[in-house]
Amino acid sequence: MDLGLSQESVAELAQMHVTNFGKIERGSANPSLHTIIRIASVLGVDPATLVDGIGVSQLPPNFHVLTAAEFVRERRIRQ
In CATH, which of 3.30.70, 3.40.50, 3.40.1350, 1.10.260 is domain 7-78? Predict the structure, then answer.
């Protein structure tokens, strides 16, 4: 959907600084859920639309995610 809005307009409507919005748009910042909902509201879309397809593969390569099962197993081993 192309609304013809600038970054400045979307940021202003979402009550955030344009620099922060630009970082989010480029993928160099991690917005809070609250911020995602504000941006989605401005754009008139469901917040799920903005995060569709984003998963563990988008995390930095040096970031390791433990599952809950792995965490529990490690905690039991260390006790």
Answer: 1.10.260
